[in-house]
Amino acid sequence: MDTQPVIYWFRQDLRLADLPGLVEAASNGIPVVPVYVLDDAAPGEWAPGAASRWWLHHSLKSLAASIRQQHGSLWFHMGSAAQRLIELAAQTDARGIYCSRAFEPWAVQQERDVQRRATRAGLAFERFGGSLLFDPEQIRTQSGTFYQTFTPFWKACRQQPEPSPPQPAPPQIRWHPASGLALDDLRLTAKPPPPAAHWPSLWQPGEAGAAAALRQFLDHGLAGYQQGRELPGQAGTSRLSPHLHFGELSPRQLWHAIQTYCPDDASLAVHRDRFLAQLGWREFSHHLLYHFPALPNAPFNSAYQQFPWIEDAAALAAWREGRTGYPLVDAGMRELSQTGHMHNR
Ligand SMILES: Cc1cc2nc3c(=O)[nH]c(=O)nc-3n(C[C@H](O)[C@H](O)[C@H](O)COP(=O)(O)OP(=O)(O)OC[C@H]3O[C@@H](n4cnc5c(N)ncnc54)[C@H](O)[C@@H]3O)c2cc1C
Predict the structure, then answer these.
(1) Residue 112 is part of which domain span?
(2) In a domain, 197, yes or no
């Protein structure tokens, strides 16, 4: 029996089901050291804020509990992901590091750093898909460039083979012991936003919470989605966005759940297509980020490079706090700060 483990580096894929790297390890009987590294330096100015950290804490807590149920432990570390992973690999005599790909420019850079250090240390480094429905490298225009507008991009995606069905969580993962910090040592909830005291009644971070939110949407939201998503005063969208962001639910699981929910109900077709197109917007955003990594800091169209911005700290604060005097704007910003979510319009 194989005893040399791999490190599974959890990132924005905080789930056990439909996780190709875990399936690969489990199906080959390879023991797994599951680890999360809080690396605040790598994202730089894109490091998560207090609301995201609140979610991350609870999502990690849920993942750790799921692994504990299977008699394993999720190991927490802080600092440079590359450094910590290499140290942990040496400590556990691991053969390599597995992870899911991520597409934010800082995360791509982080992956390269881990790969460089792993290669130098003689470790395998394998990255798996699963965060997106379509690989950004596969979706190209006829001239081989990347898409810059949504409609032809989504048309090209829809001409690809259907995303393959999601894989269930491996029934038997051989979790391997290691060492690390306690989740509370990461201090992700040290300074929660004041409204977070109410968030447990609104949100359930984690894989089980994502599945419950999906079920709620299928049973009570999908049939009215086409109109409901346009109405800021109604809870007409799925509210799955943070679950997708932290990878508690894969886009492939969502795609197939939507497609197979009451397949014979023709009245749902328009809602299904509209919802899948929103997942298309998520794909398109990643496609742009991947092919144009300067996007977070530079305009896509260089004509806007010199766009004049008014620097007004008081006006910015008023906007953030929902005090501009424009009711629609203020209502949305207050919804965001109170609930962590904003309507679609
Ligand atoms: C001008 C404007 C820009 C916006 N930009 C974004 C954005 O970049 N990312 C974002 O998540 N939300 C964006 N939104 C908000 C978005 O439309 C929804 O309010 C939000 O995604 C609600 O989450 P949901 O899961 O309930 O959405 P649902 O309507 O249920 O959509 C399902 C999923 O599709 C994806 N999605 C939906 N809309 C967008 C979008 N516009 N861009 C990329 N992915 C999308 C998300 O992953 C979402 O979880 C924007 C809204 C406005 C008005």
Answers:
(1) 1-131
(2) no
Report if residue 182 sits inside a domain.
no
Residue to mutate, 272, 274, 281, ligand 1, most ligand atoms under 8 Å from C-beta? 281
- Report ipTM for this prediction: 0.89
Q: What's the mean per-residue pLDDT of the chain?
A: 95
Nearest-atom number in ligand 1 for the CA of 240 is 25
What pLDDT is attached to residue 299? 87
Is 239 touching ligand 1 by the criterion CB < 6 Å?
yes
**CB 131, CB 102: distance < 8 Å:** yes
Same domain, 255 and 301: yes
Sheet holding 75-78, edge to edge: 75-78, 32-38, 6-10, 96-100, 124-128
- Cα 344 to ligand 1 centroid, rounded to whole Å: 6
In Å, what is the CA distance from 296 to each residue of 24, 292, 293?
Answer: 33, 9, 7
Q: Is residue 35 part of a domain?
A: yes
